[in-house]
Design a protein that fits this description.
296 residues; alpha/beta; seven-stranded mixed β-sheet; 10 helices; 14% strand; globular; disordered N terminus
Length: 296
Amino acid sequence: GASMADCSRRVSLLETSRCRPTRLAEFGHSTPTAKMAWLAAAASSSRSAPGDLAIQPSALSDAATSHDLSFYHSTTSLLDRFTAMAKGTRCAQRMQVSAIHDEADPAFKLNTYTFADGYAAQRPRRPKRVLLNFGAHGTELITSEVALQLALVLCGEAPSRFYGSVERSRLRINELLADVEVMVVPVQVPASRMLAERASGTCRSRRLNLHGVDVNRNWNVTWELGDGHAGSDTYHGTAPFSEPETRALARVAEDWKPDLFADVHSGDRCAAAAAPRNSARNSARHSARNFYGRSF
């Protein structure tokens, strides 16, 4: 919707291959070993028991076994971890869980988790709102792990890499949430992520939704620049908002009215943003080309 277009910011983190499981890449560490150690620690810190939440290597096809996915949560266990966090003493005070159903496709459910100061309603000004979307493409497994680690930090259950210890991070997050509310959508397209974690289906089906549509190109913003061929792995659908994943997220934005929207992907090391509405037409088209880069 228009509210999404006004504040849209598309951010790419880490690296992925469109036809293979996500690879680790630059995330503030200088060596592959350090990167692997950081992610493994982040993933294991959010598990209740070793092995029970991870994607098991035995579930992968021979073509995927060269990529160790055991430090990723399965989609089901990752969402269960979010739900369990909301029931914890510390997180229950600042975390609200919602499930948005699509009216045209009631079977689809978009899980959202909002982090806010419990006293925000008593403040004279409404806090700024940030909407973060993860998991638009199933092959980008790591983005949902980033969402979970962020949730742990916002709940005060994990240290921030910027502020050091858990206690120091917790104090800083308390200050942050007094002025900012954060809504997290950890997995926008659960069905494709489940295919990717099992190495099931085709490369294309792991990237797209069940209708074969790239939901990242199903918005009404520069929709005409997407691929109109139904066999493409960047197919934009029959019309803007033709897909339940896009409609549900748009509904969230229209109801919640975020001041900033970020769609987190794994791919090229870049941050691409839609051009302001009042910019020249050619500038907008140039920005749109960046916005819909090949890796996304």
